[in-house]
Amino acid sequence: MTEPWASYAPIALGTAGGTVAGAAIAEMTHRWPKSLGFVAHRHDDVHDQRLAATPPGAGRRRLVIILVAAAIGAVSLAARPLPGGIGGAIFGWMLLALLVLDVEYFWLPDRLTVPLAAMGLAAGIWLPPSVPDRLIGAAAGFASLAGIAYAYRVMTGRVGLGGGDPRLFAAIGAWLGWVALPFVLLLAASFGLALVAYDRLRGRAITRHSRIPLGALLAAAAWLLWVPGPFSVWER
Questions:
Q1: Which of 6, 24, 29, 230 could cross-link 100 (Cys pair, CB 3.0–4.6 Å)?
Q2: Domains identified in the chain, total number
Q3: What separation in angstroms does the CA of 64 have from each of 53, 56, 69, 100, 222?
């Protein structure tokens, strides 16, 4: 007979792991950009401190990141048996790091997105969706956003997407498979529209120069869609 506490062990493990990961993410996302000379942007665009969920103060910022990482770990290991739960936790923690960097610096470094994509492809050896689905997802994710960015630049003469967004979307495709990509984009767009609508209700001006960290929205949407998956259409 299974001990009652055994069912809570994965949640406790995920929470503990997330606490450690969150502390590392908070430190890394604070020190790394500054070591390269990055300066955090002012929160005066469409996105502001609500999106980062980090009130002023380094201590509170660190606490919020740790709590979110702990929740990611707990939910991941509760949602899936091993090794899928651990994979989902790692996916979520790396997305959290990218989300913080994009919100604070509009920066999605290749040193995070490329390993994230590689791990997603490797995970297909053991977990659904299959490696071919993941490969197609990675290619489609990159091509779709890179194509949109190129078309926008040709038509307007301005840069509409950062160079890291297509790479992040490719990494998401490598984890979730190609079928998930439209849903990720739709959910991310919904988050963005909700933020814009909220700002309009508060009387903030929205112009063509207003900026939203798309990568952060994609990261949040991707992990939230990982939780209920894999959908049956993703199965081998």
A1: 29
A2: 1
A3: 7, 11, 9, 11, 20
Burial (0-12, 13-18, 19+ Cβ within 10 Å), 26:
buried
CA dihedral 60, 195, 48, 222 (to 10 degrees): 60
Please give the average pLDDT of every successive group of 10 residues along the chain, which has 236 residues: 66 96 97 87 47 58 97 96 94 98 96 98 94 97 96 86 95 97 97 89 75 94 92 45
d(CA 233, CA 35): 44
Does a structural domain hold residue 6?
no
In 124-233, which residue ranges form alpha helices assigned H by DSSP? 131-156, 164-176, 181-201, 214-226
Closest of 124, 120, 123, 164 to residue 142, by C-alpha: 164
Q: Which residues contact 47 (CB under 8 A, 6 or more apart)?
A: 103, 195, 211, 212, 213, 216
Helix (H, G, I), strand (E, B) or coil at 3: coil
